[in-house]
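Our preliminary data section would be incomplete without showing what the modeling component actually yields. Below, a chain of 89 amino acids is followed by its predicted structure, encoded as tokens that our downstream tools consume directly.
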Amino acid sequence: MRLGIVVTISAVVACAPVPDRAHFTVEYYREHGDERNGMVAQCANDPGTHGNDPDCVNAREAARRMGVGTLKDLPPLGLPLNLKPPNER
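Predicted structure:
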């Protein structure tokens, strides 16, 4: 009885599809902007097919990481220095 269960479980596990592996890492996509942007565009164009594709996930993560911290590179906004509420002016 136990042998039958072990054989059945082994057969099911052996027949399970192998998960897809990404062709490129997040670091690769960070260093290769053209390929990252192309992959992100391809994934955005057909999210039903490519939404959870490992390369799509890696490209989106690389794009997210590249976007973090860019606010410090923006020029000053030119906000007024008068910080008093409008009713006290």
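The helical segments are 2-15, 26-31, 33-45, 47-50, 54-67. The chain has a mean pLDDT of 79. Preliminary results of this kind motivate Aim 1 of the renewal.
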